[in-house]
Please model this.
Amino acid sequence: MEHSPHFSFLMSAPLAVLSAWLALEALRFGARKAGARLAWLSVLSRLLCWAARPWAAWGLFNLVFRWRREQAFNHPETFPFYANPWFPGWWLDSLYSALSLEGALAGLLLACCVAAAAIAIVVLPRREPSAARGWLTALAISALAFAFALSVNRLPRIYSEDPKTPPSLLAAWHDPASTLLYAMPLVSNPARFLQNYAAMQPRLRRTIHGLSHPPGAPLSLYALGRIAGAGGDIRAERNKLRYAVALTAAGALNALLLYALGAAMTSSRKIGLCAALLWALCPAFTAYATFAQDVFYALFFNLALLLLWRSAAAAAPPWPTLVALGLVFFCLTMLTYSWVLATTLAAAFLGIAGLQKRRPWRDTLARIALPLAVMTLAAAALLVYARLDYLAAYRVASGYVREWYRLEGVYQWCMALVGGQLDILLMMGSLAAAAFLAAATGREPLRADGLSARLFLGVLLAVYALPLLFGPHALKMETARCWHWVTTVPLVLAAWKLGREERFPRLAMGAAAGVSAGTSLVLGLLLNFGA
Model:
């Protein structure tokens, strides 16, 4: 479908979203008048308003964006979702066209069944699960996250009406710029690739993300492909499918880490399962799971968050945990240049936790220094073995990133900054985002193991703000894709807030997961996140 460069101001999705929000606020006002007779309706209307408010903010932002479209951003058809939400005419026509495509209703039914199963295994049990049952349920959520992401990405979409267009599941794999697939021939011999990386790096420019990341990025996709049995011609559909399935399966394992972190931060396995469920069904995961390696990098970031919390909570320095944290940092140095954020977060949080708990300075210093020392030694050993100049590779990558989107003027910079944060909030699920904001700004104590979850969140967001405010302009965009791991702690707080709903906590948890799943389905029908 061709997209018009001229956008309708009124007949638009933003205006429809604002109208729906006003209607829901009116419903909530009426439910309040009903009093205790319809308590469930009062709770449901409040949850619906929570879900609609982030979208109302998005609607207002987009109306302003359309008003001064030419001055706002270089690529209006791909902002702020890095998709193509701007349809000529009434947007419901586009949704109807998508539903009319062959296989759409059957695909929707399958995805809904998978999402319903995931919600049911978390919401229906009333009691706190045992340790064994908790891990089994988390494993089931991970499997259902894998199935849900694949089913959503198999939906026929409005932008692929042309029969010559590849199926949506593999659409991004046909574009050299969307994945690292076309770097695989260079990685056929991993040792040689590392040792000759200085000569190989310029050839990765075609893949975009291959040039902007350390050498571990293409190597990780190569390893996932080998595990899935991919080999031979990278253009073969069967190989692309294996890469997509392997990447989705790896990303789905994040649900296990969300469960462990949520249970640790709230002292509740039930809340941990709710956090895992919110991750499994959130639009950011389902939109990018089948082609973006960021879901794989998130595994290491989330594991670092879990190990960091345990390292700070332990009464005595947990040496095995600290060594494991250092090895995770080492893996991150090879996967993404954002590893600096993880190490900065660790040093800051361990230092503040040490001050709060009045630990001896040697104890705190040991907790900070050991992971960094392990990371440095492991990285140095690899760099010496491969004769790899890491700083030179970083300079080439950072110079390339600066060639990306240029924001000229204060208005463009502000629109990109605000739009990017709306992107990450909405793509974590609007009701989950609203619950997170309520939990973050509330006064109810949230502590476990003598640590404050809000302190952990505050340090995380402060570190996250550094590249947004002072880093390359590109970091303000594609936030839901590149910064998905930053939503891990917010999702835990959202799950905690929903679980503390006084009258209907299971309704609140189910509604949040349902909103996330529904958003994933609608966006999956309308938008092209692999553009």
